[in-house]
Amino acid sequence: MISIILFGSLAKGNYTGGSDADIIINYSKTQPKGFS
Predict the structure, then answer these.
(1) What is the DSSP string of 1-36?
(2) Which residues of 4-30 are buried (b: 16+ CB within 10 A; e: fewer)?
(3) For a designed S-S bond to 22, which of 17, 18, 27, 34 qualifies (C-beta 3.0 to 4.6 A apart)?
(4) First CA to last CA across the chain, in angstroms?
């Protein structure tokens, strides 16, 4: 799970150090398909 969160922050290219939920939400917005 952590690897997915880190990948999401790296993929977004903007890690603000926010909560995991915010990172996942931002990642799902950046990647519409997201992770299942």
Answers:
(1) -HHHHHHHHHHHT------HHHHHHHHHHH-SS---
(2) eeeebbeeeeeeeeeeeeebbebbeee
(3) 18
(4) 12
- pLDDT for 36 equals 44
Q: Answer left, alpha or beta for residue 17, where phi above 0 means left and psi between -120 and 50 means alpha.
A: left
Contacts with 31 (C-beta within 8 Å, 6 or more apart), sequence order:
8, 11
Half-sphere exposure of 31 (CA within 13 A, CB side): 17
